[in-house]
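Exercise: predict the fold of this chain.
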Amino acid sequence: MKRSRRSVAISLFVALAVASAFVVAIAGCSGSNDGASTSALEGLDASQAKDDNLKTLNVGSDLYPPFVYTDEYGDIVGLDVEILTEALARIGYKPKYQLIDWEKKKELLASGELDCVMGSFSMTGSENEYR
């Protein structure tokens, strides 16, 4: 059974929210354990090797440092990027990030150019519009 884009977008939004809550919950537990940091980085390298087997999902966002920004090499990076990349990998997708004009997000989604958007915005009062 094929899932609709809307269903995928909702799943991704929920995954990002859960992952964000997890990061906030463990933020107070961070310490200076260099050995653990090295092990975590080695694990990321191994997971990136599996990326070729994942389905690509086009994700749009605007710049909103430190959550989404471009690094000195022009790559799209940030806290939201890291969280969503991990969440998507866990459900079988790899993101292809694109910087967009946030005001055009609905048009880009409707045209199929984007599968979902990520960013800091409130759905309060707009629940039906964003679902």
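Check your answer against the key: Residues 5-27 form the longest helix (23 residues).
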